[in-house]
What does this fold into?
Amino acid sequence: MRPLIGLTSYYVNPKAQAKAPLSAVFEESVCVSYPQYAARVEKAGAIPLDIPYFKDDNSIAVLAEKLDGVLFIGGEDIDPMYYSEPMNGSKDMVPERDELEIKLIESFYKARKPIFGICRGLQLINVFFRGSLIQDIPKEAETSGKPYLRHTRNDAKNESVHNVNTVKGTRLAELLGDSFGVNSLHHQATRRPGDGLLVSAYSEDGLIEGLEHPDYPFLIGVQWHPERLSEAPHFKLFEAFVKACDGQK
It folds into this structure.
């Protein structure tokens, strides 16, 4: 039997998220996800299962026990209260999603199940391990004077817009090589890496683009969206993740 992998989803509440892009599409609260995530997981040899929003802690623990791994997908900003900072550029936060995903990552981490994070997923991993985030890259550029690239490139979701350089000796370097192009759909980034996490990639302007845990079976986060890019080399991330999940069976 192929491994079963849970994929988190957007929780959209139109009444509470008047300014969020997806909220204009729906009249009632829904859980949705882009199909590229599931398609990549399935192509790599696993069965993807979307995880809706729910609250019961026992159900979350059972989910972590039954599934072989979890993929935390992209999406809205994480409330900065989770890394003990005031609001400083974060937007479109979804309390229900933050609450669920913090509990999910805790349960899967305790079960030592494979964890893969994409964009917001990388940021969630970092926050869970007590790291912090740059809440808005353009605002950070103005206050710090650092010449950051334009990282919110919604005009080129499926195209490489800048290079990423991996750190030698990391799992990410082993999988993807020294340097490659990526897309860029984020306005936040890792500021302080979380406890025990290893920085595995940087963008050309010095922002952290990859994190991993060297003492965990499989825990990798990337800031770009590999599910939207051509299969080489980015598909190797999904292959390695599914292989790790298959080892849980």
Notes: The first helix runs from residue 35 to 43. The chain has a mean pLDDT of 94.
